Amino acid sequence: MGQYRMIAIDLDGTLLDPRGAVTPRTKAAVHRALAAGLLVCFATGRNWTESRAVLDEVAHHASAVFVSGAMVMDTKHEVMLHKTGMEPSLAADLCRTIEAMGHAALALQDKGAAGTDYLITANVPLDNATRQWMDATASTVREIPSLGDYSHEHTMRVGIVALPEEIARVKQAVIEQFGSRILCQSLYVPAYTVRVLEIFDPAVNKWEGVMHVARNHGITPEQIVAVGDDVNDVPMIANAGLGVAMGNAGPEVMAVANHVIGTNEDDGLAQFLDELVADHLVDPLPPGEIA
Known about the structure:
By secondary structure, the chain is α/β, with parallel strands linked by helices. It has helices at 11-15, 24-35, 48-58, 88-100, 111-114, 128-136, 164-178, 206-216, 234-239, 251-256, 268-278; strands at 6-9, 39-42, 63-66, 71-74, 79-83, 106-109, 118-121, 141-144, 155-162, 183-189, 194-200, 224-228, 242-245, 259-260. The strands form three sheets. It has a six-stranded mixed sheet with strand order 8-7-6-9-11-10, sandwiched between helices. Helix 2 runs parallel beside helix 11. It starts with 5 loop residues before the first strand and ends in a 13-residue tail after the last helix.
């Protein structure tokens, strides 16, 4: 019998190569893992709109974790299974602080309820990387004069895209002001060479999203493998039965991982998946449960 039944896989920096693409070798390895009976669950900081092209490219549509755990979706049927939004007044206060510091606030929405992916502060210039990201992912955007005065019924995350020194300045300010009321993290998006500041309800993390999927299949934490490269992957890597850091992962990820594999430049994930299957470490799911 194998040891593992499920693998949670980050997208940027893990499944995707440095150019933001799924290599043929990685796609083939994912499908060999599926054929061996492993439940493959993508877990990303992106929302569904931003992830759709990636899932189409790898040709695997199942339950997946989005927005760093704030949303879990059945991507085959496009049905929301679970979500954790921000408290509306907190989201407004955060946006007011960000706007006062001279930045356009980005409020990620539950698109199914709000009809758009992002609300963005109007009349504040966006950097080119943000515009490129919105265009590349076909994200829908609605400009609001002041997000600090908005109602935020469907806001899941608040953030900014900026230069590293500005990210650090805003991060320090919001942590000092809001403390334990928020989860605040800074991520690097290699394909676009930008840093992103993301602010959530403190209950949000990828591990909680992954466990929502796992419980639906009767899978325990010890039976889960989690692979990632950035700070939002730390909770799932630290709690999984086998926590795996990419060779290109940051030090925070390396510190909690049980195992380090090759980089995303060198198809490290593909090699690791093939080793899992070849070493018979996969415990096949019962017929009809592979999804």
